[in-house]
């Protein structure tokens, strides 16, 4: 039995050598499996690795065309800055002036406010170095603009009348004799430490500038095929262009900056796409916000791959793209570990979506026959 088979195999080999792969081979297909092109073998391996997929139909498939395709991943990072001014007020000792040797008289005549230098324009009058990190926060005390004020409640006497005995030091008991006893609140003194200034008589007001930086990161994909963006993101890409952290503002010209972008793929207008996405995703949404752009970082990475079209026979119809009739497609791209990965979204035994993309259920509702 085994001898017979060996003989048959030998015969076929001889035949194919003699006929040089001519049409006559077709008659021998029932003797040995048709030799699938490498691309369809790869597709078969991929389909077999999926849960519930059925790779059988590939045996009768034929490749129609293989086209080289390109995808670009563009990363645009813009560092934004916001500035906010706050006034930090704390109780602070206030020394009342003396007039004719009297502090009481001094309190009557003195200025109750001591101004600091004007703060000015928080955007133009203070230069703050831009951090190297994508996100950062710093707070600066504008100490030259520190101002002081006297406590309005105690007028720098640091004490106020006791609220319980109203300065009397004694309170009346609610009894028949109207007895007066020492006030517990002020222990009989009639005065309390001023609660506003904590007994210090005044306040210090320090203007504080808080500068915050954050990064808006936009990743855009451009391609002349149908590869899923997550596949481009995970696949092997080659850097082709880079802008390494240049000074940037909302009035900087993106057109000028992108002038010398390499346009390697005629049907992907890279420059036009990038400029459009810059306006749509970075500039327009932030134009009216109270922040400034400080830094631009930009990179373009390219991925070359193949788009394969194959035909499956009359009883298979492309359900996802009905105009393609019996033709299906897949992409073969350099995956994470540099291997050739497959991406497809119209394989006929694919799932209708009930178990997610990795599972194709072999039920009549989903099967396209
Ligand atoms: Zn006070
Ligand atoms: Zn009291």
TrEMBL record:
InterPro entries for this protein: SSUH2_homolog
Name of this chain's protein: Protein SSUH2-like protein
Organism taxonomic ancestry: Eukaryota, Metazoa, Spiralia, Gnathifera, Rotifera
